[in-house]
Amino acid sequence: MSGQVVVEQPHGGDAVTVGREEIRAKIANFTTQYDAEEGTFVVFELVTECGEDNAFGMPAGVSHEYRRFTNFHYFSQYLNAAFPYVIVPPIPEKKVNFSIERMAIDVTDEDFLRRRSDGFNVFIEHVVAHPILVKDKGVHAFLTRKDWKEHLFYTPPRSEEEVLFSGKSWRDTLSNFSISRKGNPPPEEFVNFKNFSALWFDNIAATLKAHEGLALNVQDTVDVHEELKAGFRRLADVEDGLNAPLKATASAMMKIAEATDKKLLFEQRDMAEALYNLLLFSNSIKAFLKHEEIENSNVENAREALSSKQKTLQAIIDPEHSTGIGSMWTRLTTSKSEEKIASLKQDVVVLEQGLKDATARYDSFVEKGKEEIEYFHKMKKNKMLTIFRDFAEIQQKHASAMIKFWNNVRTAVKPRVVASNDDDEEDL
Q: I need a surface site. Which of 42, 89, 213, 402 has the fewest CB within 10 A?
């Protein structure tokens, strides 16, 4: 049975009941709270609805959980630690750093909180839409349980045992690994993805830079319209004969500004934020590629350890034909030599199994990683198409509204121009 995932943007009223096989998750609301020890902080209401027959193993019904920014950050760290082969979606940054917009930095500011809420909705959207993440028990716990931290289990790098996630930063964990590439080069898909991602992020950064001019132009357009409205009002007061039509045109201009200009401002800002959210994937992609290097390093280290042990074993068995370390074993007595050989053979068996395990882990990572790269490309393509399609639509609406406005202006002014020409002819 294949499940369906529906992600809904915040809206008022009661939530819509999901189908039997569906899951819906959203940030429904946010509130500012105060604590004597912690001061003022914001809580986001996370609403999750699960159908009775959903294929992801989640309990049916509706849950209302409340999460702070620190909770989302902790959960994001868990996802990066538990799923090294997944390009984990980013959460909004703790502090807004958006040079092309004048954005609030007060964490209790309404506009700031709305943007952060939208960012968390995008994060939840990516998580529940991901075919691997949506099946994870830790994800289920974060969405539906108050004790969610007690259900975040993962397997640390270079370990075989599953442990409870402690909250240690995945970036700190990765930074502890100093890796120099050995053995085979990365798979072609990983090399291409690394090159693509670098170029892609450069293009997004360039688009955001270009958007700075677009944002200024949109604001200039709105300012001009405000000036035009004021001008029409003043002209209507001077020209008594055009009072009514000019006032009507000014009123129409005001409606255009409210219905179109403001929406254009919101749309261009949302486009920039959507691009910026994609730019935040940079750290996750770097971690994804770093994990491939780690798994490859584990294989090569296991191979080198096995090779070294095999050479030592061969040197004891046949010291005369062994190079380098052979002579040091010639002084061993027969009993000591046999004892050492038996011990080394056991070590070789263990190391052979270690190499097999490391190779299997690497092969598994590469297989899952290739699927993740394909999934990411599809997600990225759909996201980019949506961003530019929505913005093109609002630009088209804006242009149509402007044409209608200037037609109104021409209609209002034309009778007065004709009358003026008739008066001039009578004077002649």
A: 213
Which structure tokens are listed for 364?
């598994």
Output the six-digit token pair for 175.
Answer: 């930074």
181: closest CA among 295, 267, 81? Answer: 295
- CA-CA distance, 116 to 113, in Å (whole number)? 5
User: Is residue 68 within 8 Å of residue 43, measured between CB atoms?
Assistant: yes
Structure tokens at 257: 């500004």
**3 state SS of 157:** coil
Q: What angle do CA 383, 387, 392 make, to 5 degrees?
A: 145
CB contact at 8 A, 337 and 316: yes
DSSP conformation letters of 299-354? HHHHHHHHHHHHHHHHHHHSGGG--SSGGGGTTS-HHHHHHHHHHHHHHHHHHHHH
- Nearest-CA neighbor of 325 among 339, 303, 340, 347? 340
Q: What angle do CA 226, 228, 229 make, to 5 degrees?
A: 65
Residue with token string 């349980």:
145
Tokens 């690497």 -> residue: 362
Contact 177, 286 (CB under 8 A): no
CA gyration radius, the chain: 32
Q: List Cβ neighbours of 279 (8 Å cut-off, separation of 6 or more).
A: 201, 204, 205, 208
- Give the list of residues 6+ apart from residue 38 with CB closer than 8 angstroms, or none: none
Does position 25 have pLDDT exceeding 50, yes or no? yes
What secondary structure does DSSP assign to 289-312, as a single string?
A: HHHHHHHHHHHHHHHHHHHHHHHH
271-327 residue pLDDT tens: 777 777 777 888 889 889 988 988 898 899 999 999 999 988 888 887 666 555 555
Q: What is the pLDDT of residues 42-86, one digit of tens each?
A: 999 999 998 887 777 787 889 999 999 999 999 999 998 899 999
List, as one string, the DSSP characters of 4-63.
EEEE----SSSPPPPPTTEEEEEEEEEEEEEETTTEEEEEEEEEEEE-TT-TT-PPSEEE
Cβ atoms of residues 229 and 408 within 8 Å: no
d(CA 23, CA 7): 8
236 touches 243 (CB < 8 A): yes
